[in-house]
Amino acid sequence: MKNQDSHSLLQVLGLGTAILLVAGNMIGSGVFKKITPMSAELMDGSLILWAWAVAGLITMLGAFSFASLAATTHEAGGQFKYFKDIFGSFLGFIYGWSFFAVISTASIASIVYVFAESFANLFGIPPIFEAYSGFSLFGIIYPFQNASIKLIAITALVFLTLFNIRGVQGGGWLINIVTGAKILGIVLLIVLGLSYSNDAGTVSVPMQAISSVHAGDLLHISAFFTAMLGAFWAYDGWVNITNMASEFKDPTRNVPRAIIIGTALTMTLYILVNYAYLQVLTPADFAKLGVKEGNIAAVEVAGIVLGHIGITVISALIMISTFGATQASAMSAARVYYQMSKEGYFFKPFARVHPRCRTPYVSLIGQMIWACLLVVSGTFDQLTDMLIFAAFIFYGLGAIAVIRLKRAGKLTLTFGYPVVPILFLLFCTVIVINAIYTRPLESLTGLGLIALGVPLYLYFRNEIKKEKLL
User: Model pTM?
Assistant: First the structure.
């Protein structure tokens, strides 16, 4: 640490925190509720489990691919850094812009909003500003709608931002505690589901169903991939640890390990807990839940098994889980804008490091402001519909980056090359094409938001040229 100057980030986090950060970024609200839309799409318990398993295996392919890339640099910035160094500054910036505008901040806004809903429901927070709920801007944005929920969400974002500014070690400590609690809570759900006595006549999924799907069951391939989008939302976040590479001890060794171990751990938990859900309710039951506003699959399952106590416990677990996921996302994402600014491709203040706490405080504050605006606007749900689509475009680029580096002889650490990156690229391509086919409006809007970064890139490139001439 003696060789680190006062403007650098602290390299203090270990492998255990790295693994829990991966899991903490992934485990948010999706694992507790995504079985509902997936059931409506597939109406078959075995196919639902296959969707979780296949999505998990694809995610593992991505984890292996990006673990290879993570071994190439000690610096922060994750995919921005990889794409800039391998494909050039334009693709690096376009990713960074997309990450700031949609991929990260909309995800943070969405997760913290679920936390606020859980908090309000658990503690009975009354609504406020109801008289102004009909007020709108341009007939699209209703800032006072669900005002009490939005206020809780914004308060949580402000608290976490201030907490993260105070030091990365404190942020890592919070990740360890909250993610540990989340994992224990999911294990509790698994135990409850597997031990449930099916006296009420609900139809559980037999264990052999996981390995006995026939070809005829997969005729509606597009529906299967659409259902997997729900699982991908729950799995998303595994790559975020790469944004903080410069703050881990021995990052070229520990970051790749953490990506693989954390993703495998989360995948195992997800498949087991969804299997447990299906021991209590049928896919038809879960599909019906989607018609009722505010119903969450895990809460319904806990209520059936344990009654009111179960509802309270799982509601608290969802609150803790979404709080932890917001913390993990907010802490790691800000490092991307810090690295972009440090290299001249974002607003200069975002590169500032707190002189005492040694954290990228301006990046954390800027991210918080934009996420809060998305919370107030209420548009984050629409933005998150585009999130997976946009994310898989860049995941595919990551696979291409692995192949390109390997061919150039610049990649020493590889996992299953060339099969792993090629398979991951193939799956990414299929998912993107399917998203365009099934959700053309969201996909095209996502591409439009990405394209908005082009004039900003030209502006920052010109600024860099001006500085070089001085």
Answer: 0.88
